Amino acid sequence: MRPSHPSLVATAVVLTALLSVGDASARPPAIQLFCESYPDARLCAASRVDCSLCHTRTESPVAWNAYGDDVRSAFSKPSTSDETFAAALPEALAAVGDRDSDKDGASNSDEITSGTSPGDATSAPASEAACGPAEFSATYDVCRYDGRYALRKVTLEACGRSPTPAELAAMADTPPELQPDAVADALTTCMQSEFWRGRDGVVWNIAHAKIRPTIFVAEPEENTDGRYTGEEDFDYFPDYALFVYTQIDGHDSRDLLNARYYVQRLIVDGRSVYKPVDELPGRQKMPTERRAGMLTTRWFLLFNNMFTALPRTAAAQAYRAYLGLDIALGEGLRPVPGEPADYDYKGVAAPTCAGCHSTLDPLSYPFSRYDGVTVTNLDEKGRYLPTRLEDSYEASLPGVSAMPEAGMLLGEPVSSLTEWAEVATSSQEFASSRVSDYWQVFFHAEPSGAELATFDTLVQAFRTEHAFAIEPMLRDLVRTEAFGVP
């Protein structure tokens, strides 16, 4: 369910360029260079990449779409190093800006600015359609916010049912200027339902890609007091409880990563009730001061850290799940000078690996003292161990003991995993990823074209006006023309 925003173009164009000349290794300066060339490209703020914008194939043999071909042809000669590539890329981008690579009637520069794909003829900036005083389709007003249309979307997606005839009639009788607020009120009601907040509800399902429960794990039997039979080995239900709690009732969604508490899900009169608690005895063994929400649960550490000295998998999953940046796709690359140091001798300093690992390894250092499974005692899971590296099965490697706990995230130094979480949750990327989660729920697609301005406005209000609370952001979303105009 990870939103990749293929219509947002900035760094996708960069990957096209960097894979189109010379070798196919990643060249991190490309992202910065593209954003300097196109400062109005919306994707620059979120640092996302989708190679399909310029590529039709990224595996060997690599292939490009029309825009990718134009960019690579604009290089005067093959680039053999990061330095020559960096010097040539801005000129190549400028050379193709006025072209219409995909022959859809819009220049590449106009498409980049508007957020559509310059290499896809089916993706073009929307033209403004003229609407008269009232233009109706068979059911809805196709030129204006139609409360009946928006109400149907809200009740289907957030309540799990169609609106009743009485609800539709009441909306039709509501003055047009009041209909967006009436739809937002209907959403607030739906967000109290089990369909939204209960087990296997909407919010619960958003959490799947972040928690990644495995199909081979027997599902514990849930009891009404918030405990589970069989949780001693595989207990990811507290992760779901914490996730849902941070997304409902006006709670601060930054607690996804900043929470120093746990959450129990209780069943009261057949309804889900989420209760924050200081301890979950026997189920979580993390000292309070070392907790970082979803990043330090027993399940997250067991599943991602295991007993690997440098838990790159944990850092990559956190980067993808909570900042929307997938390093496997080249997203969010922020190279750190001198990295990767390759403390665990995995060969990541090789030219074909270093482009990603110069970002990934510094992201991973703050995870390195958190243990998923202790090799000498498999009953111990999910702890903070200051001596973890000395006790690991890789301790015999000379470099492992020198591995730092401090790292880098989004260009900022972080001394610990709790600081990693604080930097992450204060970022534009975190806010954008949360809005993206719910945009997908209601639109079943990623924002594109004219929707991008709406998306940006929602993200900024989420950060500045709504204190990272989900419900007021969603009330804003369902009031927008992007949502309510058929």
Would you kindly provide a brief summary of this structure?
The chain has about 475 residues and is mainly α.
Describe the structure using short key phrases.
single chain, 486 residues, mainly alpha, two-stranded antiparallel ribbon, 22 helices, 10 strands, 9% strand, disordered N terminus
Protein architecture, described:
It is a single chain. A two-stranded antiparallel ribbon has the order 1-2. The chain has 22 helices and ten strands. The two termini are 25 Å apart. Strand 9 (407-409) and strand 10 (412-414) form a beta hairpin. Helix 11 (202-211) crosses helix 12 (237-247) and helix 15 (312-323) crosses helix 16. The longest helix has 16 residues, at 428-443. Helix content is 43%, strand content 9%. It has 486 residues and is mainly alpha-helical. The chain has helices spanning 10-20, 29-37, 43-46, 66-73, 82-96, 108-114, 147-159, 165-172, 179-190, 194-197, 202-211, 237-247, 255-258, 298-305, 312-323, 351-364, 388-391, 417-425, 428-443, 451-464, 470-479, 481-484, and strands spanning 55-57, 63-64, 221-222, 228-229, 262-268, 271-277, 370-374, 377-384, 407-409, 412-414.
Architecture blueprint of SSEs:
Blueprint: H1 10-20, H2 29-37, H3 43-46, E1 55-57, E2 63-64, H4 66-73, H5 82-96, H6 108-114, H7 147-159, H8 165-172, H9 179-190, H10 194-197, H11 202-211, E3 221-222, E4 228-229, H12 237-247, H13 255-258, E5 262-268, E6 271-277, H14 298-305, H15 312-323, H16 351-364, E7 370-374, E8 377-384, H17 388-391, E9 407-409, E10 412-414, H18 417-425, H19 428-443, H20 451-464, H21 470-479, H22 481-484
Helix pairs in contact: 1-2, 1-4, 2-5, 4-5, 7-8, 7-9, 9-21, 11-12, 14-15, 15-16, 19-20, 19-21, 20-21
